[in-house]
Structure formats: C-alpha cells, structure tokens
Amino acid sequence: MSTAANLAPSPTPRLLNAREAAGFLGISVRTIQRLHARGALPTPVKLGSCVRWDADVLSRWVAAGCTPPRPASRRARS
Fold first, then answer.
1. Backbone angles phi, psi at 22, to 5 degrees
2. What is the pLDDT of residues 2-43, one digit of tens each?
3. Within 13 Å, how many C-alpha atoms sit on residue 45's CB side?
4. Burial class (CB in 10 A: 0-12, 13-18, 19+), 62
5. 16 CB-contact burial (10 Å; exposed 0-12 / middle 13-18 / buried 19+)
6. Distance in angstroms (rounded) separating the CA atoms of residues 54 and 17
7. What is the rounded distance in angstroms from the CA atom of residue 52 to the CA atom of residue 16?
8. Angle, to 10 degrees, between the axis of helix 18-25 and the axis of helix 55-63?
9. Residue 45: enclosing H or E segment and its boundaries?
10. pTM of the prediction?
11. What single-letter DSSP state applies at residue 44?
12. What is the spatial distance between Cα 3 and Cα 32, in angstroms, rounded to a whole number?
C-alpha cells in the first residue's frame, strides 16, 4: 500500500479514547493527558463527558510532524 492510501480518510470516523489514542501513537496515557492539557494534540471530539480523538486526524497530525495545532498556553509568572 502507498502512503497516500494509508492517509485516506476512512468512510466512518474511528473515535479513540485516551487509552486507544495512546496505543495508536505509541505513547503512554499520561502523555496523552499532558499533551491534551497543553493543547499540543489535535482538538478532540467531546461526547457528553467523553473525550475522543479521530484516528484519521491523529494520522494526519503525525504525518505533518506532530506540530501543535495551536500555540501552547504559558502560565503567567508572578
């Protein structure tokens, strides 16, 4: 299979919870939580109190070099 075929969106979005997203990316669940809190992951889908990441969006994010989708917020120094 070509790389382009691997990045083609699936007909039905596959939504991953934090554990599944961590496995998909090869990182720990805690790292998913940290990246999400910093705003460094693509924006997840909220379903009530559930947070899910679209597998296709994560694949494109990795292919693009895992650049933060928005500037990470910095804490104000006192």
1. -60, -45
2. 555 566 666 677 999 999 999 999 999 999 999 999 999 999
3. 14
4. middle
5. buried
6. 9
7. 5
8. 30
9. strand 45-47
10. 0.71
11. P
12. 25
The full 3-state SS of 47-73, as one line of letters, equals: ECCEEEEEHHHHHHHHHCCCCCCCCCC
The 3-state DSSP class for residue 43 equals coil
Which residue bears the tokens 């940290």? 34
Distances (CA, A) of 56 to 29, 39, 44, 73: 19, 18, 12, 25
Q: 19-55: string of b/e by CB count within 10 Å (b at 16+)? A: ebbbebbeeeeeebeebbeeebbbebeeeeeebbbbb
User: Per residue in 23-34, pLDDT tens?
Assistant: 999 999 999 999
Which residue in this structure is represented by tokens 């382009």?
A: 4
